Amino acid sequence: TAESITYLPSSGLSTAATTLVAHSLGSGDKALAQRFGDTSLILGTLFMSAMGLVLYFFAHPLLGLFTADEAVITLGAKVLRIEAFAQPAFGLSMLTFGIFRGAGDTKSPFFISIAGMWLVRLPLAWALLSYTTWGLWGVWLAMASDITLRGIICLFAYRHSGWLERYTEQH
């Protein structure tokens, strides 16, 4: 999809962050793990911010790669522009999940994802579909809200959860 083109490089960066953090911690170098984590978050967030700008300003041409149907392009451009605002937070959550996995924490990404999906995205999408006339726009607004909240939670967890200390205590 047009949106997936924008996040695939950050998904790869997340995998790299997992590996680099795990290798650093396995070597006993907490400071290097922290630097890799910080650098990954910065690079991923900057990249996804740039991709948000691409989605916003080039929604029509991007969608034109997939279809020539002007009605589909017009509707798709509206939702891509909503998603554009969530791209930096999407980068934060992807990269944080990779960093946490590298430190052996698979539970935090799991619970943050489950909570976002079941407590934000689905209920908000249902409410916006049931009580407004927003239709597809409302569903994408719910998705963007979930992604944005996850990004904020992930940044908070990265900065304040003591993920490096937990790793050290476990090993």
- The number of helical segments is 7
Structural class: mainly alpha
Q: Kindly estimate the percentage of residues that lie in beta strands according to DSSP.
A: under 5%
Count the beta strands.
Answer: 0
Shape call? globular
Count of the domains: 1
Which segments are poorly predicted (pLDDT under 50) over 5 or more consecutive residues? none
Question: Using only CA atoms, what is the Rg?
Answer: 18 Å
Order of secondary-structure elements? HHHHHHH
Question: How far is the first residue's CA from the last residue's CA?
Answer: 41 Å
Biggest pleated-sheet summary:
none
pLDDT average, as an integer? 94
What share of the residues lie within helices?
over 70%
Task: Please outline the helices and strands.
Elements: H1 2-26, H2 30-57, H3 59-64, H4 70-102, H5 107-131, H6 136-160, H7 163-170
Helix pairs in contact: 1-2, 1-4, 2-4, 4-6, 5-6
